[in-house]
C-alpha cells in the first residue's frame, strides 16, 4: 500500500454503472514526510475519509477486496484513515 | 484510477479479434491541474467519451470489469467522463 | 494499452516450456510522437507484427487474454498493428 | 520482488475490517546498495520483521498468497527477512 | 517481459513457507544495450540461470504461471536465459 493525502473530489455524470454511489476522492500518493510521489490519483472511499485526511491506498485487484467494491471497475481504494506514522 | 485527457484516436486493421468494434482513444494521464504524467496511453471508451474530454481511467484487471470488456485483452479503460474536479 | 515500436527479436534456448513457438519481439514503449517512454520490453506477437511496426501493447493479466497465450507466463503481448494515430 | 528496509509503523483506527490484527510497517524499497528507489510503502508483515530489518517485498496479487492475507485488501507484503545479499 | 542481468543472490532464513527451496536471484532490469532501468529486483529462477546471465523476467500474476511457482507469493520470475538480442 501507499500513503495518500486526500485533496479533493471528482464528480461525473456519464460513468460506469457500478461507480454509482461511490464517493470518488482525489488523493496524492505521498511519502512518510508528506512529499508527493504521484499526484492526483482517484480512489473510492470505503472508510469515511475526507479532504485533508492521510489515508492508506491499495492498488490493483486488491482494491476490489475492499468493502462494497467487489464488482466495481476500480484499481485503487482508500482502506484506512491513518492516525499516526512512526519512523 | 487516474485522470486522463483524450487527445486522439487509433485505428488498426490487424488486431485481436476481441478488440473488434472497440473505439480506441489516445489518452494522456494528467494530474488535477492538467499536467501530463504519462503520455499517449490507449484505452477503449465505455461511456461515450471523445477527443477533448477529461475522463477517468482504470488500469489492469479492473479494465475488464467495465461494460463490454470482460473478455477483451485490455489493461486500461475509460469508465467516466469527469464533470468537475474540486481541490 | 500503450503504443510500441518493434525494434528487434530475442532468442532463448533455455526457457519456460509454454514459451515454445512464441515469437518474442523487442518493443520500445513510445508516445504518439514516437518518443521512447520505456526501452526494450519483450512481448510475444499475436497479430503478425514485425520489426519496424507500430503496435499496441497490453500489460499484465490482459496479455493472457490474447490469442494463444492463456497459459503462458507472459505479462505483455502485441495485440494490434497500428495503421494510424490521429491527434 | 524487491528489497525493502523497514523504517517505521503505521496505526489506523478507521480501516478495512480485514486489516484488523495486521502489523503495518513502513518500508522503503531499496537497491542492493541500500539506495531508496520508492519511499514509504506500507506492507503487512508475515514473517516477524521489525524496524531496521532488510526484507523482501512482494507486490500485487502475490501479496495475497502470503500467510494470513488471502482475503485482505492488500497489494504488498513482507515475505522474508533477508540474511545476506551477495553481488 | 523485460530483459534482466543476474548480479547476485539473496539468502533468507525467516521467509514464507512456499519460498522454501526457491533459488532467489538479484536481477537488474536492463534495456537492449545493458543499461540498468530498475536495479536489484529479486526473482526465483525457473530455467537454470546464474550470476552473469542475461534473462527474461515476467512480472505480476504471470510469474505464478512459471514452473513450480503456482502457489508461491512471487510477483517476478526468470522464465528464459537469453541467447541473443537482435536489434
From TrEMBL, chains A, B, C, D, E:
Residues passing through the membrane, by range: none
Cellular-component GO terms for this entry: bacterial microcompartment
InterPro entries recorded: EutN_CcmL, EutN_CcmL_sf
Major location category of this protein: other
One Pfam family in the UniProt entry: EutN_CcmL
PANTHER family named in the record: BACTERIAL MICROCOMPARTMENT SHELL VERTEX PROTEIN EUTN, ETHANOLAMINE UTILIZATION PROTEIN EUTN
Protein name: Ethanolamine utilization protein EutN
UniProt subcellular location: Bacterial microcompartment
Keywords: Bacterial microcompartment
Amino acid at each position: 500500500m501507499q500513503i495518500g493525502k486526500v485533496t479533493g473530489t471528482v464528480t461525473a455524470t456519464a460513468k460506469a454503472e457500478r461507480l454509482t454511489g461511490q464517493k470518488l476522492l482525489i488523493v496524492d500518493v505521498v511519502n512518510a514526510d508528506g512529499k508527493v510521489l504521484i499526484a492526483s490519483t482517484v480512489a473510492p472511499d470505503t472508510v469515511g475519509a475526507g479532504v485533508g485526511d492521510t489515508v492508506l491506498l491499495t492498488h490493483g485487484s486488491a482494491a476490489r477486496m475492499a468493502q462494497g467494491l467487489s464488482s466495481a471497475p476500480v484499481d485503487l481504494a482508500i482502506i484506512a484513515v491513518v492516525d499516526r506514522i512512526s519512523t
